[in-house]
């Protein structure tokens, strides 16, 4: 049934009334409505994406921080291990170099003509007076296989085969 | 200058394509803004509140265009959103002011204080009579009496059977008839 005929049947008095309600709208309201709606939408969109994207932002931040932490821990371990290795290698090299240099000095002296000359030809006085032989070399000479002039031996031991008379005479 | 009225199919097609969505949405607004405005205005009464609700309605429409199904009429879908937004508006007012919607004096006072109302005594009387109706009956009455909407379409808007809507409208019309007969 047509709505106007329907209301005549249902409410005859009401059907005689005009359908106008007495409401007005501002001038040009509908002309500007689409602009207002689009503006309203942009304003709300400015706010809403923040909350929409917030969980992702937080998760990304957490991931970034975890990565930095892992990196820093890894770097710390890496550098520590590198330092330990360097120190170890350095120490080992230093020790071996020291050992090698001692051995080299000794072997140079031992194998050379100088060594034989020092041991066989020079007297004790010559050896002690020589300004060309340093203390370390002297120690090595004393520590040589004869062992009789070892630097660690006490003076008593050194003079065990010296005649007392000769010693008094020397003193 | 006369505005071009596009068919619903054309508007929907434009709105479904992301590249033409805004253009289609402007066409949709241009076609339906006045109908929706008056539908909302009859419920919320003041122009300012109507403007708020209408803008919120269109924002919701724009954001839910993907959810629109072409098996429903475009305008019933729009009316449905507008009706829901109007009801949400009432609920907000209720929460904020603790004012009963059934208190006719509060609504009549609102109408009279609205700068955009210059109705005569008869119009104020009719508005007050409509305000005595329960919320849903009021919406049914407005849709049928003012918008002259077919029951089938009202059924889509309000998710209620045609029979129930007819019964509701008949009851509402009789009540209002009694009020205006007694008061005039």
Characterise this structure:
The complex is a heterodimer of chains A (171) and B (184). Chain A is an all-alpha fold and 171 residues long. Chain A has a domain at 112-152. Helices cover 76% and strands 0% of the residues of chain A. Chain A has helices spanning 3-10, 12-16, 29-111, 113-121, 124-129, 135-142, 155-158, 164-170. With 184 residues, chain B is mostly helical. In chain B, α5 (104-113) packs antiparallel against α6 (121-131). The radius of gyration of chain B is 18 Å and the shape is globular. The mean pLDDT of chain B is 87. The A-B interface holds A 3-4, 6-7, 10-14, 17, 19-26, 29-30, 33-34, 36-38, 40-41, 44 and B 22, 26, 29-30, 33-34, 37-38, 41-42, 47, 51, 54-55, 58-59, 62, 114, 116-120, 122-124, 126-127, 144-146, 148, 169-170, 173-174, 176-177, 180-181, 184.
Beta-strand residue percentage of chain B? under 5%
Radius of gyration of chain A: 54 Å
Shape of chain B from CA axes? Answer: globular
Which structural class do the helices and strands of chain B define?
Answer: mainly alpha
Under CATH, the topology of the largest domain in chain B is which? Rna Polymerase Sigma Factor, Chain: A
Quaternary structure state of the chains depicted: heterodimer
Major β-sheet annotation of chain B: none
Keywords:
heterodimer, B: mainly alpha, Rna Polymerase Sigma Factor, Chain: A, Arc Repressor Mutant, subunit A, 2 domains, 74% helix
Helix and strand arrangement:
The complex is a heterodimer of chains A (171) and B (184).
Chain A: H1 3-10, H2 12-16, H3 29-111, H4 113-121, H5 124-129, H6 135-142, H7 155-158, H8 164-170
Helix pairs in contact in A: 3-4
Chain B: H1 8-16, H2 21-44, H3 47-63, H4 74-97, H5 104-113, H6 121-131, H7 135-145, H8 151-158, H9 162-183
